[in-house]
Fold these 3 entries.
Entry 1:
Amino acid sequence: MPLDLKALVASRFGENYTLHARHLNRTLVTVQQTIGFDKVYANACGAYLFDRDGSAVLDFISGYSVFNIGRNHPAVKRAISDALEMDLPNMVQMDCSLLSGLLAEALTRRLPPHLDAVFFCNSGTEAVEGAIKFARAATGRPGVVSLDGAFHGLSMGSLSLMGCEAFRDGFAPYLPGCRRVALGDLAALETELARGDVAALMIEPVQGKGVHFPADDFFQQAQRLCRQHGTLLLCDEVQTGLGRTGRWFGFEHWGLEPDIVTLAKSLSGGYVPCGAIVARRAIYQATFHSLTRCVVHSSTFGRNNLAMACGLATLQVLEEEGLIANAEAMGRLLLEKVNALRSRHTLIKEARGLGLIIGIEFQQPEEFTTKLGWAFLHTVEKELFSQMIATSLLTRHRVLTQVAGHGMDAIKILPPLMISEKEVDLFVNALDAVLETCRSFPGPIWDLGANIVRHSLRKG
């Protein structure tokens, strides 16, 4: 008797957190319950999640930029259905599948001509791990330099490049040869590269944690130094690629010519894990340089038919629906409208971003009563104020956002690229209302903050 998945889901709906507490990450369950994120969603479409009553939540996280084209896009669903109906041979391994060749062709057509060789894998961190190997093989050097504040993934090689210490704690020792410099510190970067042992410099065009990027020519000068010292330039586009910044790829904002690019997250439209490394052919062949080394780096599920079909559909949707231009326009509008709130709310320091990766940073307010609440939360943990804002946006206004990073007075938004002015206004009005409630201390929003503090201290 075949599995009746619909009946199973219907009969067990609502047990989500109980099952996770019993069998998966119970600490995560506790955190979600503490901050009010323990919602049970029944379905999703476009920029919205829906609970069992059909009430909508505006999704401004997009699965950490997985759903650039929106949730459950019909074109990607159709591609999956078609792939299954054709009963294609899948993961034969000792063959060259058509769909992976077609997706590689489609990707390279949207990248600069020098990036013409593709390796498919399953995730962003796997793409980063492979990129490290490719760079070492091509240069014969062991070192990799990354930037403070960077987030490149959570497997060991990626973690070794991590610039967020909260994720690294407890997992040392790290991959030898990995060092970091501050974003914007050209002198420190030149010192590292001058040692002659650095295979690659890895950058995020826009740092996912905190949404930071250079306002000057740091990236161009970093590329110049890489060329001067024989170091490869790696652009981690796992979150910023495929339209997120208002361009196909984030590095385009600075006119860079990276040697290797990593992709994942939105590549499959949110249905099937899919990642990719795209490199210069000479770099690629340095890894697979002989017949005996043709599979020296591989990924069992990397070229699977469903992921490839999803990738082809996703690229077509991004292009045909004009989502990249829309990301640029809606991102500009969001920044304008959030920054306009600064005249009403001294809590807002700035809103910054490119396209639809946006960070909203807060600061100690000028108003005396609000300042008291700010100081109260900051005596425990710096990011508690931002979490209070994110929780209030969800529980009171049904808008899903996230804290921008550990120890940061900022929230981050990653809306689907298909949002309209309607969603922009829903978010801005919700943020305005939440910040307005912060004027009353004590008051309901600060009671929420106090509850988060109590749980935080209890955990400690």
Entry 2:
Amino acid sequence: MKYIIILFFLLLVSSEARASFTFNDNCKQAYADMMNLRYAKAGSRMQAEKKMNPDNQVPYIIDNYIDFLKVLIGEEEKDFINLKNNKERRLQKLAKTGKDSPWCLYSQALNYLQSGVARIKFGEYVNASLDINRAYRLLIENQLKFPDFAMNKAGLGILHSLIGTVPAKYQWAVRSLQFEGTIPEGNSEIKEAYQQVASDPQLSFLVPETVFLLTFVTLNLSADIPEALNLAQKLKTSALSSITNESPLLIYSFANIYSRAGENDKVIQLLTDCPRTSDRYPFYYLDYMLGVAKLNNLDKDACYPLLSFLGNFKGKNYIRSAYMHLAWYYLIQNDQQHYSTYIERIKLRGNDQVDNDREALAFANKNVKTDIQLLKARLLFDGGYYARAKEELDGYKAVDTKSGIEYTYRLGRIYHNWGKTDEAVFYYMETIKNGEEMPYFFAANSSLQLGIMYEKQNDYKQARKYYLKVLDMDFDEYHFSISNKAQAGLNRIKGK
């Protein structure tokens, strides 16, 4: 979800009035309402704008935002159909006049991009590739006509970065899109867009979005968690903090950053304080995130947000994962009956589009006994509670080959994030030695982490060795995300 939902931040707006694309106070307020998930208010403002200023094309940009975000957040087919049904009509409106404005081609590109991302979520991959390719062509054309247009750089930057993560064996699909890019190239473009926006008072309200894009690339593609955390903390302590605190979308982004940085208490606080008023479109995925974060702290009330998510969310992603976390919750509470109930429910409802759900389904189908010590260590590690996680493994005795491999893997991950590099390398090596021929992800992710570690030390020969080792391994769980990160690592160090 996180790679797809992040793309909505490509859909940025400007306060400048050019031709028929006029971002007046009414449109800017509608945009703020939209970012805060107050879709009814934003829609009403745009209806009024169409009557007051019938030549203004901005309402059609914001209307499409709202429909697109509903698809991303709610994952309901009726919203997807609505977005598709309005596509051509809005494209005609956006292309009607204002060709001397950079927003003319850009707004059309955003429409195609929104359609492409939505199609990916609903499995229409061929048409998605056509839409994304069309969006890219329009962005390139617009860049030639208006080379100083900041938001065009942001859009191209994120596309160039994402293309740079595609594994080599899928490059045939990329070639069909007929465009290429690298993570450093995309990162540089987004930084340039951010700097341009931050230095222009007329565009200052766009700073959160451009920072978000930069943080996304830094966190997920460049694998620089400290830098992503630094960016988030700067924004949270800036004059814009009151704005970001009102947006569940931006709170989602910060929660992801703090989660990856091992600052689980901040995740829980952010998501607990997130505004959930009745005039906002419900973002039930945040309940899933909160339940997982609470479970990572072994909280007694971790079940309630997970149950809320399962009871309200009408989409298909993360359903299986939520059931798995509920099962783990009850296992830790020594409630075998509820544990078994939720293990069975994993098989009955949900999708397998994301790694978390594939892991849950594989977990349920294998029907193997879960080691509570290893489970608690994993959860505490995910929350950044490294000392507590290590204590859970003190005196641990493996009962089979898999638990032995997982034991060394968990210790490697704990020591790595704890800053104890020598111990981490030792346990990663042990995991690879004993697990690289096994179908589990432990050896592959150990190799990925070694690659990242050596890359940070500028030992590119060793980094390349371990990134390539990931791509040579045959494993089931988290295959797509781990392989993507390894490919992204190879792209970063290419030529070094």
Entry 3:
Amino acid sequence: MNFDKELDARGLNCPLPILKTKKTLAEITTGQVLKVISTDPGSVKDMQAFAKQTGNELVATNESGGEYVFFMRKH
């Protein structure tokens, strides 16, 4: 999937992946896609809730080898 910016949140535990996602989304423009990589299993539910609360679109979620990858489109 194409993305405009990548955030490496590996090794960070809740709530840091969400806080860093929020900060990084503020740096990109509407319609751009942020790729977030996390190793925190709790980030799956957190990202879904964050997208719902903020109106940003969680385009895709993947899990592979203990890493969770999220693609979020800024609205």
